[in-house]
Amino acid sequence: MKTEIQELRKEYKISQEELAQAVGVTRQTIISIEKEKYIASLILAYKIATFFNRKIEEVFDFSKVGEDDERI
């Protein structure tokens, strides 16, 4: 799933580790989400969006969820 997390981190000048600590996950989780290897749970997506003061839809692109994705 495409996200704007990396761009938002750059805008806010925070590291993957800082974001991970703020939302209660590991740095590896943030890396995996940014590399589109992991889909965040709804709760985690909400925490990340809230951290950046954005709507979930502004951070995560749900337009292709379900297409060729066996994880749902």
Quick overview of this protein structure:
This protein has helices at 5-12, 16-23, 27-34, 42-51, 56-59.
Give an overview in words.
The protein is mostly helical and 72 residues long. The protein has helices spanning 5-12, 16-23, 27-34, 42-51, 56-59. The radius of gyration is 12 Å and the shape is globular.
**pLDDT averaged residue by residue:** 92
> Count the strands?
0
What is the percentage of strand-forming residues? under 5%
- Give the ordered list of helices and strands: HHHHH
- Work out the helicity level: 40-55%
Report how far the terminal alpha carbons are from each other.
12 Å
Topology readout:
Blueprint: H1 5-12, H2 16-23, H3 27-34, H4 42-51, H5 56-59
